[in-house]
Structure formats: structure tokens, C-alpha cells
Request: fold
Amino acid sequence: MMIFNKRVLLAGLVAASAALVQGCVTSYSENADGVNFPDIPHSYIEEGTFVDPEAVLRISRGQTKDQVRALLADPHFDEGLFGNREWNYIFNFYTDTVPEGYMTCQYQVGFNSEVLVERTHWKNPACADLLVPVEVEEIADDKVVTLSADVLFDFDSDVLRLEGRRSIDRFADVLTAEFKNPRLQVFGFTDRLGDDAYNLKLSDRRAAAVKQALIENGVSAYSIQAVGKGESNPVASCPGVSGNALKECLQPNRRVEILITEAP
Reply:
């Protein structure tokens, strides 16, 4: 009898350990891309939390779990203690597009075998539009999409952020759906802070990064011209402003513009 009890106890410990490793969530549903998300009733915080959108934008490939936790806090589901490669959150974002005044979004961070950030997903694609809207504006006979460089890239970097790349993915979908034979000019711009020559090179690299992302989405390389414009064509001048206030005031100048024309 004593041997039997020990075996039962051992089996219970193994089951408990497996539960810790796998987490307690058992009910999932898929998004349009086939990515599984835990159902909200299994969350510790079913109502979600209001998160700073900038914190989500700063999630980048190669970050550790501690770095993700510093930006987003602990995941909102029982993800298990060991070996888990997905953290799931429920976030609320203020918006005037819905009667409630805010949208509830499920967000997932995926880690690789080295437990570093590898990917992110939204259950509802509309949530990505709240952070980085892709709007096509008509100017004369052309159409222009303007994206903030501060949203697309980290400071002093030409590597697209995860949400920045997702915005380029969505733009590529717009091209496919709304244009038959588009020609694109991708212009990178910086503010006037810093060395002129360095800013020109940075803007050129950023324009090239957007072009490459479009090519990876199936847009013909021959239809895209990428040009760095540096500090030229500012949309904000900010006279009499200095310090951090100047950097914030000049933000509209740090941008990527995509000019779209239909080829005959």
C-alpha cells in the first residue's frame, strides 16, 4: 500500500509539473492568419489594461522576457513557468471609431528557442491600424502615404520595428487591392538635428529598408524607387523651441513618404 501511495504521489507531481510548464489555458481560437489566441475568459484580467501605445511599438526582435516585461508588464494569462514561448495580453486602446471610446485587443509575443522575441501577432488586424494607421491621401493626381519614422524605426536605426514592418505589410495589401500597376517613390526624411551628411545617409537607408520590405511582400523591385531626402522639405520649423520640446516639435519631419502613381 505504501508503494502504491508513492506512485500516486509521483504521478500527481508529474501532472502538476506539466501544468506549470504548459500553463493552465486550454481554450483557444484562431485569428485570420491561423494564429491561436487563448480565450479571454481564461485571463487573470478579462477587462484588459490600458497600455501606452509607445510601449507596444518598442517591442523588437531580440528582446528578452525581462525587457518585454519592463515594457508591457506580466502576461495576462497563465503561461506556465518553464519553456513557454508565447506571452498573451489583453490591451485597451482609446479610439473614437467605436461607441465605447476604446477597443479591446489581444496581443501575442512569440519567443524563439533562445527565449528572445521573434514575432508578434494581433488577433484583430484593426488593432494594428490603431497604432500605425495606413492612410492614402490624394494630392493632385497622385496618392501619398506618410508614416512616422519614429514609429517605423528605433532611434538612429534603419531596422524596421515589428509594428513598422506590419504597417508596410498592410500597405502592400492596399496596393494589391486598389491599384492595377502602381509605381512607387519612397522618400525618407529626417529632422534638422545632427550632422547633415549623416542625416542624409540615415534617410537613404530607411527608404531602402521600406523598399526591401515591400519587395518581400511581392511588390516588384522595378516599380520602386527609394531616395533619402535628409533634412529637406520640412513640414515643421519650430522657431524659438529648444531641448526635448524641440525634438518633439520636429517629429513630423522624421517621416517616410510613399508616392503612388498608376503606370499607363
In short: Confidence is low (pLDDT under 50) at residues 6-23. The longest helix spans residues 2-22. The helical segments are 2-22, 53-57, 65-72, 125-131, 149-152, 162-178, 196-216, 243-249.
